[in-house]
Inverse folding.
């Protein structure tokens, strides 16, 4: 369904992504995992059509991705809700743009369906400032799903949330995916999240010039129970493999040894007693200016 071939992207003289190759099948759930700053958001932006690659090609259904489109819904890390619109209006805004041929009643029903899907019907008329972080992200997910995209792109959507809210939303999004089978590409820096949700986990090497490593197949049966999965030997082995792949891909830092030559200066005494004497001097005294003197002292 989606193919990336030898894709590279730079910003100025900094190469962020290099030689990215990836194939995604329809209905597949892919997680791409990498360190912060490795280029995950840049990769999602390329898939969304918000950025254009400097080299290579990104193709969906045999056609190059030349810009944003309703066939690709995106959920950002920072919610991206319009603060003056209610929950209903934020989702309805997307529905109006994608389904202008529907009647007003049909668009309203469509909007309410996806708000209900993320359990936000009681908050239908609330503004974003009246919602918790988890609820705001639910609105973002509902808005993306309401567009009925072929592909759902998620850019670390839960990283700003507390652990309990994050776990709840992971389970909810997983349940929604099991029902809809929308193709999902999710980027994260959390190994547990990546394994819990995905069919395949693909490590992204650290930048600059990050590239994708070999995918790791996740054979765990669905639906996945997070309470049981922590005691599963397969899950433990997969987590260890993901972590080792990420740590193994980290480039060794180059250690530069340099001999430092200290200046030929003696620290000044800046107490009040010596202030006048210092003002009358040409500058700090150098060690090379010191002279050895022998003084006889009568006892």
């Amino acid at each position: 369904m989606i193919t990336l071939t030898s894709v590279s992207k730079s910003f100025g003289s900094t190469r962020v992504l290099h030689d990215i190759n990836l194939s995604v099948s329809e209905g597949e759930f892919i997680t791409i995992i990498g360190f912060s700053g490795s280029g995950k958001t840049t990769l999602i932006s390329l898939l969304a059509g918000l950025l254009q690659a400097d080299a290579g090609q990104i193709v969906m259904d045999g056609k190059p991705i030349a810009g944003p489109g309703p066939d690709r819904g995106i959920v950002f890390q920072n919610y991206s809700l319009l603060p003056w619109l209610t929950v209903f209006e934020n989702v309805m805004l997307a529905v109006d743009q994608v389904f202008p041929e529907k009647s007003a009643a049909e668009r309203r029903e469509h909007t309410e369906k996806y708000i209900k899907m993320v359990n936000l019907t009681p908050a239908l008329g609330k503004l974003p400032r009246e919602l918790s972080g988890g609820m705001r992200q639910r609105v973002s997910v509902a808005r993306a799903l309401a567009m009925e995209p072929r592909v759902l792109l998620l850019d670390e959507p839960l990283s700003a949330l507390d652990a309990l809210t994050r776990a709840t939303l992971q389970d909810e999004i997983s349940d929604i995916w099991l029902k809809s089978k929308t193709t999902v590409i999710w980027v994260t820096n959390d190994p547990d999240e990546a394994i819990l949700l995905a069919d395949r986990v693909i490590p992204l090497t650290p930048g600059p010039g990050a590239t994708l490593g070999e995918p790791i197949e996740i054979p765990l049966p669905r639906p996945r129970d997070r309470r049981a999965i922590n005691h599963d030997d397969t899950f433990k082995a997969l987590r260890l493999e993901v972590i080792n792949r990420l740590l193994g891909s980290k480039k060794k830092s180059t250690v530069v040894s340099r001999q430092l030559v200290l200046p030929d200066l003696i620290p000044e005494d800046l107490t009040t007693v010596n202030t006048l004497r210092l003002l009358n001097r040409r500058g700090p005294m150098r060690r090379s200016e010191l002279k050895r003197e022998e003084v006889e002292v009568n006892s």
